[in-house]
Amino acid sequence: xxxxxxxxxxxxxxxxxxVIGLRQTDATDNRDYEIRQSGSTFVNVPYNRMNExxxxxxxxxxxxxxxxxxxxxxxxxxxxxxxQNAPAFAQENATASSxxxxxxxxxxxxxxxxxxxxxxxxxxxxxxxxxxxxDELVGEGGxxxxxxxxxDISAGDLTYVEGQSIGxxxxxxxxxxxxxxxxxxxxxxxxxxxxxxxxxxxxCVRQLEYKHPETGETVYGVCSTYLCHLEPGADVKxxxxxxxxxxxxxxxxxxxxxxxxxxxxxxxxAYLWRQFKDNERAANPDxxxxxxxxxxxxxxxxxNILYKEELEEMATKYPNNFRLTTAISREQKNKxxxxxxxxxxxxxxxxxxxxxxxxxxxxxxICGLKGMEDGIDAALGAxxxxxxxxxxxxxxxxKKAGRWHVETY
Length: 409
What we know:
This protein is an alpha/beta fold. The chain folds into three domains: 102 residues, Allophycocyanin linker chain (domain) (Dna Ligase, domain 1, 2-Layer Sandwich), CATH 3.30.1490.170; 116 residues, Elongation Factor Tu (Ef-tu), domain 3; 154 residues, Rossmann fold (3-Layer(aba) Sandwich), CATH 3.40.50. Helices cover 23% and strands 26% of the residues. The protein has ten helices and 18 strands. The protein has a six-stranded antiparallel beta sheet with strand order 9-8-13-6-7-10. The longest helix is centred in the last third of the chain and has 14 residues. 43% of the residues are buried.
């Protein structure tokens, strides 16, 4: 939607752009990489930079959804709340605009979560936490390295809830000689932390590694490499928390469907700990989960089942409330003899999943590689069609009702 009234404003006005589909970084601008597209990004733009901004949006693959004028001289428009795992361009604008010190903006649809903490620590004044532990999650013979990293936050005021993210600012300078910008990571612990003492926050981080498309050399992600090699006792710059899209419902009798690939398990682990871990349940007398949770987890090898022992323990202890289904692509075959991916497991269980989704008490969470979305839609769409239901309309209704939550990249 485009607001023509915005363009007639005076040059000292500031406008709020809502943008979707931004690319992750300038470096990926002309390369065929996976792109995070998690919800909307809000950016404040002065009138005299609107043309420049719109041109850049086109170059970065973004789509401008709306433009709204803010108060004269940008009053009340200083910070932008970047939704969890938002593109790096949005993070850059959040950093650049945070110096005014005014209140953060959030998506209108998140008003029902107004009490959720957001942007306690901003990029220009991050919290300095300390690494407590950094443990490998991939078993022997597995692919790559994924670390569970726990930080001490007891010296500050950082609070968060399950489903949110924090930003990490790695040390050093980027390729342009400027300080590195923050990267967002989904939190893998409950609001009380792994030790259930309100003093820690944990992340699940895979070291990014890929071949340069032109030179063929191996390239390692700046922030993920920094985190994966972090030593206990080291200081870490932390921002946030951010995000209101992936929050758990407050009611304890809900059905929770979780579909995750790789480190997309992070928010799911937080949900499951809150629901089923004994010490966590003891810390939350007002939240005693008695609904049903189903995790469908896609990984390449058995050795890559992150938090395997934890998941199996919960599935054994709460067989009537938690189901664990894995899709192990390099070890299992789908019905056609090909590799078993998460969308194949969804197809196998489409009838049961769709019936669950018809229940207004069911929430669905998808986190991980964007490539799984089409297959999931196809499987559930075929099931919905048996009842004469258009899947996209059904899915849209779930999202509007706050029951469909997606965080993919």
